[in-house]
Amino acid sequence: MDDRPTDSVVALRRQTRRTRLWAVAGMLLAAAFGLGSRRAPMADWPVIGAYGGDAAWAMGAYAGWRLLFPTLNRLRIAGLAFGLATMVEISQLADWAWLSSIREQRLGALLLGRGFLWSDLAAYAVGTV
Predict the structure, then answer these.
(1) Any idea what the Cα angle at residue 103 is, between residues 100 and 104, rounded to 5°?
(2) d(CA 129, CA 78)
(3) How many CB atoms sit inside 10 A of residue 78's CB?
(4) What backbone torsions phi and psi does residue 67 show, to the nearest 5 degrees?
(5) Which contacts of 16-20 are long-range, i.e. CB under 8 A and separated by 24 or more positions?
(6) pLDDT, averaged in runs of 10, over the chain (129 residues)
(7) Fewer beta carbons below 10 Å: N end or C end of the chain?
(8) DSSP, residue by residue, 25-92
(9) Is 52 buried (19+), middle (13-18) or exposed (0-12) by CB count in 10 A?
(10) Spatial distance between the Cα atoms of 21 and 8, rounded to a whole number of angstroms
């Protein structure tokens, strides 16, 4: 009996590998755009400066879910990304000492945010699209 994978299995593995590589690239691009949106000259642009980092956060979340689940439907991935971003935003309403201490650090603030804003949810929606 031949234990070699079929052509469709090989094609699926290749597609999965390609999807994961694009996801890593997407995460890196989202991080670069998000950090760049907080610095001049992008920080001075009306929409990008205010919401670019939030949209980039959602793009990074999308890419992260895509990395973990490369064969999952894109609409479901977008739902997971928007759900995660929304949960992180809602968690900003919590005033727990341990969570606040994480948010005081630069990396913690970048990943978890500092203050709840309804408008950030719109930016997350744009970022997941």
Answers:
(1) 90
(2) 7
(3) 19
(4) -65, -45
(5) 16/70, 16/71, 19/66, 19/70, 19/71, 20/66, 20/67, 20/70
(6) 77 94 97 92 89 94 97 96 96 92 92 91 93
(7) N
(8) HHHHHHHHHHHHTTSTTGGGSHHHHHHHHHHHHHHHHHHHHHHH-TTS-HHHHHHHHHHHHHHHHHHT
(9) buried
(10) 20
5: which DSSP letter? Answer: P
Q: What is the pTM of this model?
A: 0.86
Distance in angstroms (rounded) separating the CA atoms of residues 77 and 11: 21
Q: Which residue has the tokens 């970022």?
A: 127
CB 37 within 8 A of CB 49: yes
